[in-house]
Each structure stands twice: as C-alpha cells, then as structure tokens.
Write a structure and sequence with these properties.
Elements: H1 2-51, H2 57-60, H3 62-66, H4 72-79, H5 81-114, H6 120-127, H7 135-146, H8 152-159, H9 171-196, H10 200-207, H11 212-223, H12 225-241, H13 244-249
Helix pairs in contact: 5-6, 5-9, 5-12, 9-12, 10-11
C-alpha cells in the first residue's frame, strides 16, 4: 500500500510538472509572437495603410486612415512613365548582376571544395571579402578604378599606349559591380552544399565514363540546385534593395 501511494504521488507530481511546463512554453511562445508582431507586423501594416490612404495612420489615427482607403496613390505612381523605365533598368541591373554572381560564386566554390588548388584557404577568405565593405564604399572604389576619364585602369591603359577604355558609369558597369559584390552570397550557399554532398556520386559518374564537364552539369549542379536557387534569390533581392552602388555608378562620370 505504501509503495502504491508513493507511486501515485510521484505520478501526480509528474503530471503537474508537465502541465506547468506546457503552460510556461505556451506563454513563452505567445510572448515571442507578440514581440514579433510589434516589431515586424505592426510597422508593415502601418506602411501598407499609409500607402493606401492620404493620411498618416500614426499621427491621424487608424480609424481616420481606414475611412480614406484608396488606391489613387498606386495609380499615380504607375501612371508615371519614369517608373516603368526605372523598373526595367532595375530588373536588367539586378538580373544581370545575379547571373554574374552565380557564375563567380559557383566557380570559386567548386575550386575551393572540389579541387586541390594551392592556397585554397586564401581563395576561400578572398571570396567573402566583399561582404566586409559597405556598398557605398564598393561603389566609390570601383568608380575610382573604372571612371572613363580619371579611372586608374584607363590611366594605366593610356600609359601603356593602348586605346582600350572601360566605363563603369554605365548599365553594364553597374551589372558587373553588382555581380562582383554579391558573388559571396552564392559562394557561401554553394560551398556548404558541396561540402555536405557525397563525392562518391561524382566518382560513380566518372567511373561510368562521364567527363568532368558532364559530371559537373549532370550530377554536381543538379544535386546542389536548392543551394544555387537560394543564392540566386538572396542575391537578387539584396540587389533590389541596395542603393549605394547605383547612387555612385548611376551618376554623371568624373
């Protein structure tokens, strides 16, 4: 009897502790969701409400803003011909920059992870160096190098007696700098995927008679395609929101 009583007491104590733990977990999750809603959802809703009204929802109140809902602001923006041109230029710059970033990131990740190239540690460190420079600084640095009049690269060509000139104050210059600057995002995704991938699959393809080129495009890249897509999306979205590089290279050349 005494043993059964102790067992029942222990079971009831465990049940109470389980209920208390679940209640604490629920309260903690609710608190985190409340903080997330305040820090993220509330500002986004205020921004959307402000775009759909001609009032300030923070100053004038939500009730007054809800009574003035309209899409006139969006129609006015879409009716501006400069918006369409700016959107097209943005898609060209970001899309081209993403293509270059993918090519560079994949190339360096394959060299570092899948080859025995010397100084791979240095190459891996150099591949992510652009992340440590602010976009505005990167834009100014490339402007100093590639200005059509005073750029150091063009000055060097002039000293060598060559008529070759580069102009980074152009759409293609902007695409090139975007690709160089955001290649580390693709490199980080794809290099991690290559390290986690089983190399025996590539060895099996080579044993079956596939060339290195065929193995790369039929085995390696398809297996790391989720990482490639993630790098593409991240690079493209970050390019859409960046301002420092277009502010420098999209201005009048010096």
């Amino acid at each position: 009897m005494h043993g059964q009583t102790d067992w029942r007491s222990e079971a009831m104590r465990s049940a109470r502790e389980g209920i208390r733990r679940r209640a604490f977990t629920g309260l903690w999750a609710a608190a985190l969701l409340a903080i997330l809603g305040f820090l993220v959802i509330y500002p986004v809703l205020m921004l959307l409400l402000g775009a759909l009204t001609d009032t300030n929802p923070v100053v004038d109140g939500i009730r007054l803003s809800l009574s003035h809902l309209s899409i006139a602001n969006f129609l006015a923006v879409l009716a501006n011909p400069n918006v369409g041109e700016a959107l097209l230029n943005t898609l060209i710059a970001c899309g081209g920059g993403t293509v270059i970033a993918v090519a560079i990131g994949l190339f360096f990740s394959w060299i570092v992870v899948r080859t025995n190239t010397p100084f791979k540690g240095f190459i891996a460190a150099a591949s992510i160096l652009p992340l440590f420079a602010p976009p505005l600084v990167a834009g100014v640095a490339w402007a100093i190098l590639g200005s059509p009049k005073t750029g150091l690269i063009n000055t060097m060509f002039k000293w060598l007696g060559s008529d070759l000139r580069i102009d980074l104050y152009s759409m293609w210059g902007l695409v090139f700098v975007f690709g160089i600057y955001y290649a580390p995002y693709v490199y980080m995704f794809t290099s991690s995927a290559l390290r986690n991938m089983d190399p025996s699959l590539e060895e099996a393809a080579e044993i079956s008679g596939a060339s290195a080129f065929a193995t790369l495009f039929t085995v390696t890249f398809p297996l790391i395609m989720p990482a490639i897509v993630s790098g593409v999306l991240l690079s493209f979205i970050v390019m859409l929101g960046i301002y420092g590089i277009p502010a420098v290279l999209g201005a009048r050349p010096i």
